[in-house]
Every structure is written in C-alpha cells, then in structure tokens.
Design goal:
The protein contains 17 helices and 22 strands. By secondary structure, it is an alpha/beta fold. The chain has 3 domains: 236 residues, 3-Layer(aba) Sandwich (Rossmann fold); 181 residues, Rossmann fold, CATH 3.40.50.300; 77 residues, no CATH class. A 6-stranded mixed sheet has the order 6-7-8-3-9-10, with helices on both faces. The protein starts with a strand and ends in an 11-residue tail after the last helix. The relative contact order is 0.11. The model has no long low-confidence stretch (mean pLDDT 91). Bound molecules: adenosine-5'-triphosphate. The site of adenosine-5'-triphosphate has 20 residues, from strand 2, helix 1 and helix 14.
C-alpha cells in the first residue's frame, strides 16, 4: 500500500493540555480520508502540524514514504501539501487570477506577471476538475461557494497533490455541498489525495473512503467508511450512543415577546437586504428562520440586535419600541444573542474564558460589589458553565479564549447566553462547527428554554435543525417573508420551494 502521508506517533503539548497524544494517521494515495473528532479532540492541531504551522513535540512525518521536517507552510507547499482554511484568504477587490498568483515568489515555478497566461492555466485547471470558475471574475462578485473553489484552484495552481479541507461545508448551501462532493471525487480521480476535517457524518458516509477518529487527543481507530454506520462513527467519537432526534412536547405559546413590523434594513451594498418584513415570536415558542444564505437573514438579525440600523419599520420587545435602542439597552431589556460570527460579535479573543463568561454582567451583583470585581463569584460561575456545557480547554477558566478550539469557543458563547435565560433569545447557526454530542446537548437546552416560556428566534442554514427545533417556520427569500408555516405541517421539499421563491405559503401574495 502506498501512503501519501504518514504521521507517526505524533504528540503535541500546549500549556496545560496534550492536544495530540501519540496519534498515527496514514493516508493512502488518491483516497479521501476523513478526520473526525469531538470539539477540541485535536484535529486542527494535527493538520496544523502537517501544514507546518506547529512543530510536533514528538513523532515523525513521512510524505510519499520520505521522512520530512515541515518547518513552515512554504515547506508544506513545496512538498505538494495545500490547505483550504475555514476562513478564506482572498482579496475582495482582486480578480480570481490575481488572487491565485498573489504571493507566488518570483523565480518559483509558476510565478508570472502575465495575467493572460495565468488565466489560461486557471481556465484549464477549472475545466479539468469541473470547478466552473471564471478567471476574470472579481471575488466580491462571486458566491461563497465559488470563493472556496478559488481557494482550491490556488492549491492546484501550485501543483499541490495532497489537499487538506478544514470543515469545508460549514459555509456552503446544500446545493454547493453537493457540488463540492463531486469536485472532491474528481480530484481523487485525477490522482489527488484529500484529508477532510468534518463533523458531518452524512458527508463522511457520502464521500470518504476511510475515517480516522480522534477523542481527547488520542486516536480511537481508523475505519473503512463503507463498512460502518453514522451511529457507529458517532459512538466511537464521543464514547457513548448519540441520540440524533430532538424530543419536544407540544406547547401552547404565550404572549407576544418580539414584534417585527414592516422592517427595512440595508445590506453592505447599500441595497435593501430586508424589505418590509413582519413577524412575531411568542413566549414558549421557537420560530425558525429558513433561507438560503444571503437572503436577508444576517441583516434581519443585525437590525434586531442593534448591529445595524433599521431604515424603516419597528421592532418591539415586550411591547417596548427598541428599533433604535443601543445594544446595551436591548440586552438589559431581555435580549440574548448567539451570533453568526463568533469571533467578531461573540467573544473578546484576547480575554480569558472567565472574562468572556461575564461580559454582559460583570458590573452587577454577584460579580461586582462597591465597584470591585468579585473574582470568586466569576470563577464559580465560569466553572459551573464549563462543567454544564462541557467546555474544554487547556487551562480551564484561565484559558485565553483565542487558544480554544472553534467548537469550544462556540459552546462558551452558548453557555453564557442560555445561562442568562433572556426572555428573547436570538440564535444564529448555533451548532456550526459543533460535534454531534455537543449538538445533542445544545438542542436539548434550546428546547428547555422554550419550555421555560422563553421566546426563541432561530436562524439556521441547516434545514434539519430548523425542522427539528422550530414550532413555527418563517422562510426568507430575497429579503421578504415567503413562507409562514407550522413545522409539523411542512417538509424539506416545500421549504426548498419557498426558499427559492418558487412558491409562497401562509403569507399574503406579493
Ligand atoms: N495555540 C494553542 N495554544 C494553546 N492551546 C491550544 C492551541 N491550539 C489548540 N489548543 C488546544 O488544543 C486542543 C485541541 O484543539 P484543536 O483546535 O486541535 O481541536 P479540534 O479537534 O480542531 O476542535 P474543533 O472541532 O472544536 O475545531 C484544545 O483543547 C485547544 O484548546
């Protein structure tokens, strides 16, 4: 058997934590090898070692049978290893071609200032792998899915043949996910090797040949995907059976908590991203907002939470007009927010975990007294939340938030917001990047909040999540409400038609 990559007995220590503990990963040439593991299990660390961002504390790496030292990403590139990161690294106002040749050192193999010949090569690569990218398009004018393909082309242009994808589907629509799977298959058919980090068992089943499972830094085994089930993979990963369903009893909703009336909000291009939008959320009810990314959901949430200005219309919280209130005032009035962009709006990354946990309430009892912070109370609350929400990090409450794994940062935000038990909780993509065990728990807690009489507005691109949690579903298309249906009276098909604007249901004709 010939391996493209062998990472043998890799150990990596960070302060207070062994992120990888004697892990061995052997990736066969021309295969798709999934890397699965709980939040904080050490997947990103292992891939960062392979890409030269970290040095292992112990262990050996072989590329195509040769032992190597990958001291930095340039060495990784020269060995034919490329990585598509979760957050793209593209210059918005440049074209596809300009982005791809950007950063190539003069005198290296494909360095050129001749845009035309570079564009030609990009066109050829794009056709060869079925990417369908226009080399002259500007990044700011293409979809997120297309931008990801530019990242893939960047690797192919540099002749990478071992490609690492870090949770590539987290930012894609279902259609784009389907296309990416096809692209991955094309890539291996043409001789490339792929390592895929993902939490989505369905995707592993669909596309991967082999799967290595990590748990708490250790390798739990490598399995042939065709011979296993999603349930078995989940069990191997979290060490217990995982319940994929969400239990929810029928409940009569109470008074109206959130009222949105004829709301209008501009998007970043200065156009109306939300047009005349009206919706209500009542106590004891989860209203799910379904829609394809970019149909006004972000602008809607921004206007509700005070991150963007409303151009027209009204927002009422418990009957009080908060349309133009400050963020602080909205929080005090009973609003909680689990934001879409956890780094931008959810956490202060250079603060300690415990500081982030009381960020809304540090100046109130029991966390402050006579103008002084009460560290014992802050520590106690943080430890409680860490325990309850299983937030894992190297140094517990003292950990600098930046060094935590993405999934554990997300769990920390959810813990803080749910613990405050606000009357209205606005939840955006709550389980993005979370492992199946964590998703099970977070879903339970959201339903618990609803059962406790809280109003919940859930915005998610995951239809499964919308269907499982919502009582009532609002569909957004092109900034408008195109559907208002009870969750139990609809299905994915019908929602899909409303999401694409093909039909309207439960709302007045346009
Ligand atoms: N630069 C760092 N400094 C200190 N600790 C770190 C650093 N990078 C990662 N860690 C710790 O190493 C552990 C493994 O993190 P890693 O990001 O590899 O997990 P992951 O499996 O990718 O998780 P997720 O699914 O949540 O992204 C975590 O406990 C994290 O806090």
């Amino acid at each position: 058997m010939s391996y493209a990559i062998e990472m043998l007995n890799i150990t990596k220590d960070f302060p207070g934590i062994r992120a990888n503990d004697d892990v061995t990963l052997q990736v066969e040439e021309k295969s798709i090898h999934a890397l699965l593991g709980e939040n904080g299990a050490g997947k990103s660390t292992l891939m960062s070692i392979l890409f030269g961002l970290y040095q292992p504390t112990r262990g050996t790496i072989k590329v195509r049978g040769q032992e190597v030292k990958i001291t930095d990403p340039n060495v990784a590139n020269s060995l034919g290893i490329g990585m598509v990161h979760q957050h793209f690294k593209l210059v918005e106002c440049f074209t596809v071609t300009e982005n791809i040749i950007l950063g190539l050192e003069p005198k290296t193999k494909f360095y050129t200032t001749d845009i035309k010949s570079a564009a030609q090569r990009i066109q050829q690569l794009s056709e060869m792998y079925g990417l369908n990218v226009d080399p002259y398009a500007k990044i700011q004018n293409i979809s997120v899915g297309m931008q990801q393909r530019v990242e893939i082309l960047k690797m192919l242009y540099r002749n990478a043949d071992i490609l690492i994808f870090d949770e590539p589907t987290a930012v894609l629509t279902p259609q784009e996910i389907h296309e990416l799977m096809e692209i991955m298959r094309n890539l291996t058919k043409e001789g490339k090797t792929i390592i895929l980090i993902t939490h989505k068992l369905k995707e592993i089943k669909e596309v991967a040949d082999v799967c290595t499972v990590l748990r708490r830094g250790r390798c739990m085994g490598t399995i042939q995907v065709a011979e296993t089930s999603e349930e078995e993979m989940a069990k191997l990963m979290v060490g217990r059976e995982v319940d994929f369903g969400v239990e929810k009893q029928a409940q009569q909703p109470g008074k109206v908590v959130l009222e949105i009336e004829h709301l209008k909000v501009k998007n970043s291009k200065g156009l109306l991203g939300v047009k005349d939008f009206t919706l209500q959320v009542r106590a004891g009810e989860i209203v799910g907002v379904a829609g394809i990314d970019g149909n006004g959901q972000t602008e809607l949430v921004y206007a509700l939470t005070g991150l963007a200005k409303a151009e027209g219309g009204k927002v009422l919280l418990n009957g009080k007009d908060i349309t133009h209130s400050s963020i602080k005032h909205r929080i005090e009035a009973g609003m909680g927010h689990i934001p879409e962009d956890r780094h931008k709006h959810g956490l202060i990354l250079d603060f300690k975990l415990k500081e982030n946990m009381v960020i809304h309430s540090y100046n109130e009892a029991p966390y402050a007294k006579n103008g002084l912070l009460q560290m014992a109370a802050i520590d106690k609350k943080t430890d409680e939340l860490i325990e309850m929400f299983d937030v894992r990090s190297g140094q517990g409450r003292e950990t600098i938030t930046r060094s935590m794994s993405g999934g554990n940062q997300q769990k920390a935000i959810i813990a803080r917001e749910i613990d405050r038990s606000p009357e209205l909780l606005i939840v955006v993509q709550p389980t993005r990047g979370l492992d199946v065990g964590a998703i099970e728990y977070i879903h339970k807690r959201i339903v618990q909040e609803r059962d406790n009489g809280k109003a919940i507005l859930l915005v998610s691109l995951e239809l499964d999540e919308i269907m499982a949690l919502s009582d009532q579903i609002a569909v957004m298309f092109n900034g408008e409400l195109t559907g208002w249906v009870k969750a139990e009276e609809t299905d994915e098909n019908e929602l899909g038609l409303m999401m694409s604007g093909s039909i309207r249901k439960g709302v007045a004709e346009a």
